[in-house]
User: Fold these one by one.
Assistant:
Number 1:
Amino acid sequence: MADYKNFGTKTIHAGNIKDTQFGALTMPIYQTSTFVFDDCAQGAARFAGQEDGFIYTRLGNPTTKMLQDKIAALEGGEACQAAASGMGAISACIWSIAGAGKKIVADKTLYGCTFALLSAGVTQYGVEVEFIDTSDFDALKKALTDNTCMVYLETPANPNMKITDIAEVAKIAHGYNKDIKVVCDNTFASPYCQQPLSLGADVVVHSATKYLNGHGDVIAGFVVGSAEFIQKVAMFGIKDMTGAVMGPFEAFLILRGLKTMEVRMMRHCENGMKVAEYLESQPKVTKVNYPGLKSFKGYEVAKKQMKNGFGGMISFEVATRAEGEKLCNSLKLCTLAVSLGDAETLIEHPASMTHSTYSAEDLKEAGIQEGLIRLSCGLENAEDIIADLDQAFKQI
Ligand SMILES: Cc1ncc(COP(=O)(O)O)c(C=O)c1O
């Protein structure tokens, strides 16, 4: 694969497979479930891994392969495995590392379904899970035990944007046991802003539903890491455990979305900063969580590890849930919907929506307040997003 240096060029050219049959510029959608063998010997050789080539789309597909190679290049990983959703990627990753008798140390602030998978899912199968604040290094050191196989975190974390120092966590975890896998969900930052593998993480997981696709029309996920680990995710996590494979049409749409990723991310970052600054000046807002604000607790670490910008995700607090609901219901341009990273600005109430899998006690423990609102700044003009927020604040 050619070694492209810069992010925008990689999104367009890295991993591309040349169409030698018809010379198509764009990768075709190989919408096929299975692939024809010349003879039994070839089928057997492919199953035995002795011959390259495709077998069956759950095990690999040309459209998806090109996308996987591109994502690996964007994250700076050796290899990538695509999945049917972010949760499909996270599940395949976890089942490729953890098992009965093993322990996962996880941050307590996570996307609601990841929290549910870790707190109520894998624990049914003999996996021990301890939730801590991974930005508290003493707590991390205390939580590591001989059976710990994974440290799992999001930074910025969904939904309160908590920042964890990836390099420091990797140093502590690997210092305790080099085989512990540090897994980072990079959905909120995207590889444009932050590349966890370059900071010492072993594995990156993504909901590609968000910034990587960027157009709100796909559910998809990725796992990125060493070639050896991704082989395990492909041949065990996806093939045998979850079966949650990405379809070729979704792969095509993400390839299309990626071509504009750098310019989209530049605008998301610019809008994020402008809207965060507006929110900071709004008297009805009691707290703004945005990694690019100097007033934000995680600012210094974010500046160090989010090298290209602070992204388009913001959360902020108003005094009560009722005020937050009134605000959301009064918006005309910003759209009340979960998900993020789309062209449209999306707003939601985590405690009752994306994080409704948390009990009231867990929400408190994770620092997710009743009055917390999550905003995904879209690609509209920042002035229009701000004007809409401003008219809605006047209603409360
Ligand atoms: C940080 C994060 N990780 C993972 C997921 C799950 O992704 P998906 O909805 O594609 O399964 C989400 C979904 O919102 C998310 O916000």
Note: The first strand starts at residue 79 and ends at 83.
Number 2:
Amino acid sequence: MQTIVLRNETDWDGWRRVTRGLILAGVAPQTLAWTIGGEATDATAGSGSFQVPRELVSLAALAIQAREADRFGLLYGLFWRLHQGEKLLGGDPDRDLATVRRMALAVRADAHRMRTHMRYLAVQEGGAARFVGWFEPAHFVLAANAQLIVRRFPDLALSIVTPDGAAHWDRRELRFGSGLRQVADDGALRAWWEAEHETLLRAAVPGVSVPEAEALDEIPRPPDRAPLGPVVLHPKSDPALRDSANEAAGCQRCPLYEPATQTVFGEGPADAVALFVGEQPGDQEDTIGRPFVGPAGQIMDRAMEEAGLDRRMVYVTNAVKHFKFSQRGKRRIHQTPEVPEIQACKFWLDVERVHLRPRLVVLMGGSAARAGLGRSVTISRERGRPMRAPDGQAVFVTVHPSYLLRIPDAAAKAREYEAFVRDLGAIKALIAAEDRV
Ligand code: SF4
């Protein structure tokens, strides 16, 4: 057995170099063990190159950031089989490829969460501000995402702190150093930063090898829009909401829990200004366990950004917390939840609302509107204007972002998208108005 040493958890360059050399030298996957740290393996074995489809390279660039310890060997095995002439893409379903796809999806969702949910403390540094954000990623997404974040805010001094390490940007260079295991609240983060920052910044080093950042930047920014600035707040932790999420994980109040993978509870800061409610988790959300990380969530994020509404200030959830679908072959086809299912799950929506006490509840689509208003709603007739729920809660009805994805005609799609952005603009104004009351 030959042990291959990589420099760090996301040593993409090292993994690629070693993989190319060893595959060309004919070294079979089962003879290799992969490890991190120490002196990196010098890959001088085989020479030359071989072709790998771009799709597989992109998948590997994401999957290498997954926390699963066997990912390096798994990816090597796929590239090895490709070199042996196997047709991996477009052929029969392949278990290893499916695992890599799942890893890539989870990394993409985690990266997305990091970029859209992280908020920052402003600290003083030599008369100027530095923005310090803390985030606990599920995967090793810090390095690649730090590149994207500093590209968005090149003129700000930033530090992104995670349990795996920290990235520091001083407007010229991105450097990496040690992180912080746990943060109880804003005060703890500030105290830690004040006590440690000089040592941390001195010890940070440049040059962490990461996958191409472009492979992760799945949400195109509208070219004429300036990026939103960092939100100078740190999410308050809310133990009661966390306890409710844990409790909902075992919910059997209606039959939808049975075929679904997991309960997908809401997500967002405990001091969120608005509660956005969709219908139910989709296929990707069900797999990953987080709301609005699939295509509908991405179009919603883009529209929010265009409307100047910061996603990090809102809590997103669904009227129904389990994915309802019918199985057609290998595909899981979305099914609209029935009224009794919406009513059963209203229990959890109420729990979220009681904990959050949002200024505004945004009901996106018919199922959310039924849950929020307790009656059937024609979206086209009632969208776009402020209303009150029977209990007095300020609400606003609009379309569900997945509706935009289903419009086949490009011109109609663009029109509906603009109308959605307008609704979000109105929501932004309403949130500000509720604040003044
Ligand atoms: S859909 Fe809602 S009520 Fe039904 S089992 Fe899931 S969490 Fe419980």
Note: The pocket of iron/sulfur cluster is lined by residues 248, 251-254, 256-257, 263, 320-322, 341, 344-345, 348 (CB under 6 Å).
